[in-house]
Amino acid sequence: MKKIFLGLAIVGAQLMFAQKVTGLKVENNQKKEQPATISKDKVNLYDDNFQTFIKALQSSDYKAVNEVLSDKVKEIVTEDVLKKVKDGIDVNKKFEILKVGYYVTMDGISHPNIKYKYAGDSSSKEVISAVFEDDGKLLGVLPAKKDK
Asked: With a threshold of 0.85, does the pTM exceed it?
């Protein structure tokens, strides 16, 4: 009888301390990555909006600047911010497209990005980066740093 009771106690202890096993299913719901290239039509649209932005910035026409800015950044961008951007960019020089790609923002969304250099500048030390929405509106402009 003691052997049966001991056997039942061991089996009972194992059942009492047993862990529950559950199944795990992995789903791949990641967003599809956009292709690394941007069509020439889109690049031309983005470039036209950037050139419009530069012309409006040069003439200090802030209403025209607001027309090419995205609705997401219109509230943040003030005339002081635009003056700082204007100081960081030589608006009298022509721009050439250096590189086209995508910029991933902090929320994980990829936006089209065009990097410009000044025409005739072979060193490419001063690069201006422009980030766009898919519809061509400007999200941001990172002016070149001048070391003077």
From this structure: no
